[in-house]
Amino acid sequence: MAKKRTYQPEAVRPNEHWVYTTELQINGRNVTPGTELKITKERGRFRFVQHVNSGEAEWIDVWGGPKGSESLRSFRIDRVRRVHYKNQTVGNLAIEHKEKQKAKKAELESSGGPEGLKGNYESEEGMI
User: Fold this and answer.
1) pTM as predicted
2) Which residue has the higher pLDDT, 68 or 2?
């Protein structure tokens, strides 16, 4: 015989009133997702994910840590020691490289290809 279902009231989510933002200013610098940060008393660099304000407390969620053991972590904003302007983590460098490649490809397509290949193939004496 099957077990009877019991009534379960709607669960109240304690974090419905939390405010999540993806842009923030820390130490006078604008921080957006992917910006690298150095956290006091922690090894490695961390990439910013989001800022959370619960009304009582305020913190940032970041991804990173020492190479080979990256994880999602949360820190209070006052623990941010430095906001880096150059990206050095492998993930961010890969993203930047892909963006550069896409821009270069789009530029080549809009100009009609490399300089040596475009243009007409006629010389002064006629066809080559």
Assistant:
1) 0.62
2) 68
